[in-house]
Amino acid sequence: MVVAQAGARQSVWDVPTRLFHWSIVILLGFSWWCAKSGHMEWHYKSGLTLCALVLFRIVWGFAGSSTARFGRFVRGPSAVWGYLRSDSAVAQPKPPGHNPLGHNPLGGWSVLLLLGLMTLQILTGLFAVDLDGLESGPLSYLVDFDRGRIAAQIHEVTFNVLLGASAIHVLAIGFYLVVKHRNLIGAMIWGYRRGDGGGEAMAPAPTWRLVVAIAVALAITYALSTGLRF
Amino acid sequence: MKPSPNRKRTRRLIIAVLVPALCAAPLLAAGVDIVKSRIAGYREIGAAFKAINDQLRSGSPQLDLLQVSAREIANGTRAQYLWFPTGSGPKPGVKSRAKAAIWAESAKFKSLQDNFAAKAGALAIATKGTDVARIQDAVKDLGGACKACHTVYREEE
């Protein structure tokens, strides 16, 4: 077990996880703009890119660096409750050595929620049909017009829920910054934080796993883009 | 026995309120019905358009299915002239995304309806041949005609 020295750089997020995070932020906004302004061809491409990103993140959650793995940050209700009682409820900065590396037990569930909503958004987009039958997702031919319309309506509702969940995510980060004096944004940009002497260091995944995860995500996305017509 | 003047006045009042209300009821109901049939008509056109796009994206489109859907759209473009009578816009109790400009700029709206009908006719003709590229071009033109009108005369969702 490698433990960071106080004040030393401590790796938190690997490059793929950070690229995934910021790409989602940009592409979610871009997809919304495309849909609103009628640039559906770009909406389609942006949606497929998001599909590849989410697929990658799911694979990376099983095979990626230690802090990206679901097994590390998805904890049971007792862990969440314990965290809430010991951490969030007390608006005091924690002493050095007590800040966990990566997602906390509550944050882990928010990541799962956001990923789940993104997955639902992508799935409904694949089957969605617009009101005029002009624009449709690559799998929409598998459903009739009315079901395609239902998918489109869910797609719209899910986007609004996703916006709400993202707003809570940003507010939580703001809470950490203002109340608990912990800047979580820096680690998501630069990948490290200044070690406070606590927590196990991130164990990076080997490059071959990254190559496999990207290949899997791209292959599935390509298959979906063709409407699973081989 | 003669009715009292008060009774007479009440009777007149009832008649004055009831008769116009009874006469207006079918007209109001017709407003709801025409909006419903308009929405149903456009739904049919949308479903037919989806069917055409599904076929074209499949890589090996079935021409008879394209013909059927193109004919449905062409029929819809003939019916559309009946779908916008005056007073069939949104009002209390009637949900519609039709903008008031449809009736304020009726000549411009009619020209866009004509354009839609012409493009649907061109697609119906194209589907009688076997040139898929020509059908695709006709579909693109028709989609453009739909958008040209919806952008101006349909409220956003």
Helix content of chain A: 55-70%
Low-confidence stretches of chain B: 22-29
Number of strands of chain B: 0
**Anisotropy-based shape of chain B:** elongated
Structural class determined from secondary elements of chain A: mainly alpha
Structural key phrases:
heterodimer; A: 230 residues; mainly alpha; globular; B: 157 residues; 5 helices; 0% strand; elongated
Structural account:
The complex is a heterodimer of chains A (230) and B (157). Chain A is mainly α and 230 residues long. Chain A is 63% helix and 5% strand. Chain A contains eight helices and two strands. Chain A has a two-stranded antiparallel ribbon. In chain A, helix 2 runs antiparallel to helix 8 (207-225) and helix 5 (105-127) runs antiparallel to helix 6 (145-178). The model of chain A has no long low-confidence stretch (mean pLDDT 90). Chain B is mostly helical and 157 residues long. In chain B, 75% of the residues lie in helices and 0% in strands. The longest helix of chain B is centred in the first third of the chain and has 53 residues, at 5-57. The radius of gyration of chain B is 23 Å and the shape is elongated. The termini of chain B are far apart. In chain B, 23% of the residues are buried. The model of chain B is unreliable at 22-29 (pLDDT under 50). The interface between A and B is medium-sized, with 18 and 21 residues.
